[in-house]
Amino acid sequence: KFFILMTLYGMLACAVYVLTAWPQLKAMFWGTSIRAARGSLSLKAYMLVSLGGVLAASFSVALAALLASHCWLLLSNLTSVEVGFRGRNPYTLGPARNAQQLLGTPDLGWLLPVAPDAPLSDGLSFPARGTASAPAPVELTSSIGREAGKYEV
């Protein structure tokens, strides 16, 4: 969740910078008068804004590709390592339920980098395709020096 949100917000930040630097970028690449596009900026400041716009545009495109690929992984309920495995993924439950596994129940919290309010999984046991629910949950107690868990099979 946090990586997907970071790429989303990074892409949006770069896109906002590109939009604000658009007059300078347009003048730089499509040949309108540099003096008119520059306005009150010095030549050095104009070139820095233009360079920043080019870098922001390239980062925005790269982050958009990264975001798209990881959204596909999210909706397929896969990690980047599991993509190379042969056979069908036993843990895919359909795009909507796969997203809920990672992001929690649908609400505005999906857009915030916080833990889900109502997670559907404890992170240790997951439902498989064809089963009604997740396997029996794992109960862990946090104590040093004592048995640190009760595992049900």
UniProtKB/TrEMBL annotation:
Record's keyword annotation contains Transmembrane helix: yes
Keywords: Membrane, Transmembrane, Transmembrane helix
Domain of life: Eukaryota
Annotated transmembrane regions: 6-25, 45-68
Name this protein carries in UniProt: Protein S-acyltransferase
Lineage: Eukaryota, Sar, Alveolata, Dinophyceae, Gonyaulacales
